[in-house]
Structures
1.
Amino acid sequence: MEKDKKSRVCVDPVRDVIPLSVWAAEWLERRVIGEATRRNYEGFVRNHLVPRFGHKPLGGLARRDFEKFVKDIYRGGAGLAASTVNDRMVMVAAIMESAVIDKRIPENPARGIRISRRDAMAVDEDEIPTSAAVDLIAAHIAPRFRLTVYLQSGTGQRPSEALAFCTECRRPGYVRIRWQVSAKAHREDCQTPFVPLKHRLEKECRDVPTALFVEQEIDAHLLKWKPVPVVFTGQKGKRIRLETFFAPRQSGAGVMPSISSYGYHFKKACLSAGLVDLDGKAKYTPRSLRHFFASTALANGVPIHEVSRWLGHRSVKTTVDIYGHLLPSAWDRCRDVLQRAMRPVSPDATSRPAEEASSSGSARAA
């Protein structure tokens, strides 16, 4: 103890009895962060961290507790992507690190805990719908959302990107994706319903080629509903006007559809179409349509670096981790290449068996 005092690593055991819920609330209150980030952090603390550890004192938490916590969240059906869970664990580690700095605990039990990309990223083949299932979902979903089904399955857009589709997105033979619906778009007081794409700045975009059926679905949508002008202020203070496809068309008709409201209609469409699992729950989610786009393109020989760019992934490695196992044709090509390199088959060897088969067939006929 005297040595710890001299090295200033001594921790007063009375100071580590503060509950994690109280310490996390104090930590969040002291942070200078954006409103969206604060809301995401508060939601994670409220929905996951506090129910699991809120009653425990800081000094009663061990590394194994957080390791099991991460595994249970990801595998337990919370609906959070691996990248989201890892991002939130950076926040949890920062909360615990502040307790170390404040001399409440000797070390940080949450430092460096995350989900392995190898274990978390690969998509389950059962999560990918068939083309017939995509059409069924489109047929049963609320008519105003039919186009979103084909924007996702035909161009690989995220749900938030499809909901932000506007006239400026449509180009000859392709779509230009520049905006996504804000997480606050469903709120009455939201002043910025559209925000830049994930991992992108306001002026950045990505272009995705469009098949004929996507063009036809856009035309069919425009025959029923005219675009709605929405004016908002961008991140740099500039006023922006978009002719949107999915904004409310009457005053007092509600706010911009959110990912949650779209997810509700999507789930309802799956149930109505009979696309359910053994428990009677919806078999697919809106993200499944994005998987359909990527897996279909890759299975038919589209280069993975192109698919990665169209999906808006930060790195092609992300695309490989998620969809690389869905390319069995690569195995066949590998076998053929190595066979030709090591044991090339001569023309005589290929023709001889055929000749022998022909002569034996003639002998049997005689």
2.
Amino acid sequence: MIKLFCAASAAILALAAPAWSAPLDVAAAKAQVAAVIDRDYGQLDALYKDLHAHPELGFQEKRTAARLAAEMRGLGFEVTEGVGGTGLVAILKNGDGPRVLVRTELDALPMEEKTGLPYASRVTATWNGKETYVAHSCGHDVHMAAWVGAARALVATKADWRGTLVFVAQPSEETVNGAKAMLDDGFIKRFGKADYGFALHVGPGLAGQVYYKPGAVSSTSDSLDVVFAGRGGHGSMPAATIDPVMMGARFVVDVQSVISREKDPAAFGVVTIGSFQAGSAGNIIPDSAHLRGTIRTQDAAVRDKILAGVDRTARAVADMAGAPAPAVTIVPGGKAVINDAALTERTAGVFQAAFGADAVVQPQAGSASEDYSEFILAGTPSVYFGIGGYDAKTIADAQKAGAALPVNHSPFFAPAAEPSIRTGVMAMTLAVMNVTAR
């Protein structure tokens, strides 16, 4: 009975799992793709600079989405706009074969750009009820240009692959809820479940390099919101008050003991308080303090321990001050991106053949979070990989000066556009062709 069940299960799984395509001639494919990139790079550069100069915040990306929709329609894709708010899905069918999802992000960050680039953003928008500058300081403009470039290359090489491309431009990745918004809008029912998925991210590494890793490549994120309630009064009479600033300050320091004393030192875990708002004047003790932060983990047990420790520490701080219990709110965010081991191994082979020593194994998961994980959790085996963004001279100059390179989300983050986009197009196109080759 058990043997029959196992045999039947294996047969079902074999039918459910898509078969690998024919082996890809990497050298020939690379030459074809390189020719397309050379032909089209001027248009990709213009697209990149336009997107960089006109960034939009999450779920406000109407201009950005329209720009990409026009590009994809011009290539012959069937485009659906307004998915999950401002997202779009572009589909191209090219015979029987695997269904392959390729994702980019649309949104930018609520911050001022300070790169000094001639096409730097000076755009402003309303965010959380306030006017703010907006900038592509995470690299999503590079991603979008590479996404369009990969689509162009795949259209140009249609004779060499077969299947269905599902190019997804996702809104609001920075809030880690844009992917879920698309899925909640019936993404799978409307567009089908993909057999494979790919996404990339530019970072402060050497331009021309590609980074990959099986298993976890990012972290789970949780948003932390704590309000300490005190008793306000004159700054010269602290004994007549319950000082919420003191409680907040103590919490910021004490919560780190959860990381240093309760968590396994070998396990990743971060608690960062990025916002501390209290009071209006130096001689007034306010009646409340509002703290906001982020919690990053890569293991469910570590996450549970940290969340419990954060809550316990906040309550202990308030109790020690004789204050009411604080309001502690933890909102789950993006879940860790887990690369499929078999698909990563297959993709790594192509990256190694195409990029040689510039195909680099990522030694450990990154600390940042990303909601591409929602597509993976919805059933799409995927590879999420990185590309370097700085040219060799920029890196060498920084090392010589003893200066740190600006990282993603820095107002000075400015990837070298051409090598980053070219590498992104090449890596993404080859990854897709590798699972769809005729």
